[in-house]
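Anyone up for a design puzzle?
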């Protein structure tokens, strides 16, 4: 890719790759850098700090392949020589092409935000553009706006489904090699509402429990390098302590030429001592569903203890509530479930906002699936009169 789109008019002689690296370094999180690079069409090899995944290791869902309609490739294909010459009508034409190509409104809105950030945080600051054309787009006419407080389309687990997941992880904890670790991860995910990326990104030194039997405290590293501390209720902290009792990562020898302090040790590790990948969180949830609510035709398990467990009343309860989640369960649903169930039990919205690490309360409101509004709807009262005497 050649990027004459980012000229060195200031005489610095910086290449397009160097300028894009400068922009991406604004974001301290590597995940954020990769996300912006993907939406803008920047080669991942240009992302500062990016290391290509090992092709021999299974990494869960594969990243979507570039389509050529990302912002930079689109600009190049349409003959633009400088970002300064792009106007709002060009951005709108790009959005229309994305829509015709089948991009969802949510994806188009996210990609437009990436373009806007590139102008606002870099091009205008560096004198390479005078205005931000992406900011002039009428997001409403482009169907990119969601009304404030509109519930998210992300599925939410029922309260009983959350209990079933916790119980399933508890019943398997002592029978699987990594059972205690997986149970601790499920407990924290459901009991705090943290993101899956935040969960696996914690370090061993981020956890503390001043008094045994009391609550625990876990520092998580959120978006935008914003750290926060979340409370671990006593049962959650107990599950984490049980995992830490048997957590014995192998010693890793110092590398030749390695100087300075050792990198932070991850809290959750694999059997080889590596940090657990975020895809493993999804795999754990799917495994719980598949174990207690297997698909039709699945052969009976070989382990006698598991066959006996699956005939218990506890297993029946778990299967009832996990069967609807099989095949589509995702860890982000735990975050929505935490917010909704907390609000339904009278927790102040501002506290839920702080727990989730949202900068604005309106963001938290989008996570709520308030069933009280459905149960208390006036539709129930109207129906009595509308159907009286004939239905």
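Challenge accepted. My sequence:
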């Amino acid at each position: 890719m050649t990027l004459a789109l980012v000229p060195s008019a200031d005489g610095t002689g910086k290449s397009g790759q160097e300028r894009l690296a400068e922009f991406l370094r604004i974001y301290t999180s590597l995940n954020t850098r990769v996300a912006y690079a993907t939406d803008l069409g920047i080669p991942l090899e240009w992302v500062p700090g990016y290391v290509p995944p090992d092709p021999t290791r299974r990494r869960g869902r594969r990243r979507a392949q570039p389509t050529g309609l990302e912002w930079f490739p689109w600009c190049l294909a349409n003959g633009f020589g400088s970002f300064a010459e792009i106007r709002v009508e060009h951005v709108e034409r790009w959005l229309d092409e994305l829509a015709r190509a089948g991009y969802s409104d949510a994806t188009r809105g996210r990609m437009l935000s990436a373009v806007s950030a590139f102008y606002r945080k870099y091009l205008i600051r560096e004198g390479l553009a005078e205005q931000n054309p992406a900011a002039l787009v009428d997001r409403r006419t482009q169907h990119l706006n969601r009304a404030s407080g509109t519930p998210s389309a992300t599925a939410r687990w029922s309260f009983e489904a959350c209990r079933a997941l916790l119980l399933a992880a508890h019943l398997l904890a002592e029978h699987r090699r990594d059972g205690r670790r997986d149970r601790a991860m499920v407990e924290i995910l459901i009991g705090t509402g943290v993101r899956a990326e935040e969960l696996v990104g914690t370090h061993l030194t981020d956890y503390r429990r001043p008094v045994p039997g009391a609550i625990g405290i876990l520092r998580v590293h959120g978006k935008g390098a914003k750290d926060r501390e979340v409370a671990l209720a006593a049962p959650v902290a107990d599950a984490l302590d049980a995992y830490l009792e048997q957590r014995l990562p192998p010693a890793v020898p110092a590398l030749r030429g390695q100087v300075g302090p050792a990198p932070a040790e991850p809290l959750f590790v694999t059997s080889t001592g590596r940090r657990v990948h975020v895809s493993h969180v999804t795999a754990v949830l799917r495994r719980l569903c598949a174990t207690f609510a297997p698909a039709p035709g699945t052969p009976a398990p070989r382990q006698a203890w598991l066959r006996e467990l699956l005939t218990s009343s506890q297993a029946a309860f778990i299967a009832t509530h996990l069967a609807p989640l099989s095949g589509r369960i995702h860890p982000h649903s735990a975050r929505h479930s935490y917010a909704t169930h907390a609000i339904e039990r009278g927790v102040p919205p501002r506290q839920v906002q702080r727990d989730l690490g949202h900068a604005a309360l309106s963001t938290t409101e989008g996570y709520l699936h308030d069933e009280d509004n459905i149960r208390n709807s006036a539709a129930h009262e109207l129906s009595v009169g509308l159907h009286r005497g004939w239905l």
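A detail worth pointing out: The beta strands are 207-208, 216-221, 227-232.
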